[in-house]
Specification:
Residues 29-74 form a coiled coil. This protein is mostly helical. Helices cover 82% and strands 0% of the residues.
Length: 281
Amino acid sequence: MSLRTSILRAAAPALALLLTACWVPLERGRQMEARLDRLEADSAEQQRVVADRVAAVDRKIVEVQQKIDELNRAARRSGADLGVSLQRLQDEFTRVKGDLEVEQHRLGQIEKSVGALSDRTDKRFAALRGRGALDELEAKERIDTLERPDDKVSFLALAQKEEATGDKSVARTLYDEYVRRWPADAMAPEAAFHSAERSMEQKRWREALVAYGWIYEKAPRSERAPDAMLGIARAMLEVDELKKDAPGVLKELVAKFPRSDAAAQARKLQADLTPKKPRRK
């Protein structure tokens, strides 16, 4: 049964009533029939559209299922390919790792050769610069082999031991390090003084001035202060551009510490430096 038939059947009682009573003119009846025709056509179009959409959805479902199947096959195939690729990469990594180990071994040999050459070169240059520079280099090499303690008492004992055994350069370096690490310690002026004295023995006048000068500036009231001032004057006398300043240091020493042994030596040195007046004939 068509939609038009159903509508007409449902509307038949009302139409009969209208016709009987002559309420609806004949033209109105034709208009109603035309409207029913349009409704039926619209309904058929809607059914066609719905059918087309359902068919399109079905096609999409089929396509999706096909894609899912393809992905599943690809996943299985990719898994196998991945295994092959991983094996290939692992083999390549093993090869590269072996090459790297060989190169590292060669590099290590080269570094050893360069290090040995550098050591020999440093010693040659140090020897050319003089005995003091060579002693300094040898002291550095020796210090690198020493186990230097972290507590100041043991560290100072190590420096004193090296000094007692005759390795002056090592002892001086250790004394300098002691001063740098524990500058506020009561034994720092003593360490600085021993460093300065070892420098004087090696005729390293400027380094001696630095160590004596540390006492003069940082520990002016320590027991080593007078000796440091005397050491400054003596070191200055060995440096041409500083000779003229030595008498002033001696004068200051005598004024500050007149009763010290260093002051007594300063007076004697002052006398030696004072130009002697020629004797009258």
